[in-house]
Amino acid sequence: MTNNLLKITFNVFEYSVEQLGEIIYQIFETFQVCETLKINKEKGKKFIQEIRKQYLTTIPYHNFYHAFEVFHSLSTFLYTSDQLKNNYTSEEKVALLIAALCHDLKHPGGSNQKEIEKGSDLALIYNDQSVIENYSISQTFLLMKSNEEANIFSEIEKEKQKKIRKWMIQLILATDPEFHREQLQKIRKNKSLSFEHESHRLQVGILILMSSDLGYFTRTMEIQAKWMKNVCEELGFEYSENNKSFVKNKILPMYQLLVKTVPETKPCFKLFQQNFKFKL
């Protein structure tokens, strides 16, 4: 079943949010999330259900469909690459998967800059620093703290729990577009990148999540166009089908670095190469 689900041809728009929640649990089973966290399947399903409810349904882009798309892209990278499957620990895989699922939790729509410019409560609380990313992280952990039935970290050892939380914080903060270029430069400068070092694995994990956050560019042109229209509607941009310049300058360098770092992910970019005629 999972082999059929974790493909770049997957179309998120063909499913209801309830169906997507069920698929997330199937992917949890593939990566043994509940076993790693020492929880029963009911708690795993309850967590997914509660996370789904926290995503706003009134915004066109940063909603549960986007959360699923990012989660699915990251899961596909992990599933496709033996290098990733064999070198990340079980707890690190959990951190990557949960970070992908929750990275935009309760996203209010728009951008950090919009929050800062209007002096919103969120901007004041987080001192204009990665406002929405910080908010999503805190809401994820507050949800689990306030709802024991959905607290997937309740049974795992404290040290492992701390590590997963540390990874999730760093992963989600790295999705702030303001720091994308800085994150890519860090990885490029690391000439001795090795999966033997936890800090290096985290760096690669950040690259995987960043690439997954814009993973819809690996889909068919039809799916891609729908996502782009949703982005433009939410952010107030004028939609144009000619987005090749944006892809060349913003997306291509990220994908190229991921393929260079983890060559086994290259098949995931088959449609991207066909659509845009770029080499990876």
TrEMBL record:
SUPFAM superfamilies: HD-domain/PDEase-like. Pfam families: PDEase_I. It comes from the Eukaryota. Keywords: Hydrolase, Metal-binding. InterPro entries: HD/PDEase_dom, PDEase, PDEase_catalytic_dom, PDEase_catalytic_dom_sf. Residues 1-280 form the PDEase domain. Signal peptide: none annotated. This is Camp-specific 3.
